[in-house]
Amino acid sequence: MLDPCEKVSITVDKYCHALETMGLTKYNKAPPGTDNDNIKKEDYLKEAIQGLRTIAATYKKP
């Protein structure tokens, strides 16, 4: 849904909105491609995975 035309990139606005929708508040707000408003899929996924691992690590394992 972030890239319906399959351009393999998204805007900075979509990037920030998607990460914040997942509950991430600490993420790179100026990733590579910010100047062109063109964030690559790889950069978005890297930030999302790192952020989700960080917030998941705060819970104790039973």
Q: What would your notes on this structure say?
A:
- InterPro entries: EF_EFCAB10_C.
- Residues 1-52 form the EFCAB10 C-terminal EF-hand domain.
- This protein has 62 residues and is mostly helical.
- The longest helix has 16 residues, at 41-56.
- The protein has one domain.
- It has helices at 12-21, 41-56; strands at residues 9-10, 39-40.
What is the number of strand segments? 2
State Rg.
13 Å
For the sheet with most strands, the description reads:
2 strands, antiparallel
| N-to-C SSE string, H for helix and E for strand | EHEH
Q: State the assembly state of the protein chains.
A: single chain
Structural class, from helix and strand content?
Answer: mainly alpha
Beta-strand percentage? Answer: 5-15%
Number of domains: 1
- The proportion of residues forming helix, as a percent range, comes to 40-55%
Q: Low-confidence spans: pLDDT under 50, at least 5 residues?
A: none
Summarize model confidence as the mean pLDDT: 90
Instruction: Strand order, main sheet: write it out.
Output: 1-2
Helix tally equals 2
CA-based shape:
elongated
Distance between the terminal alpha carbons, to the nearest Å?
35 Å
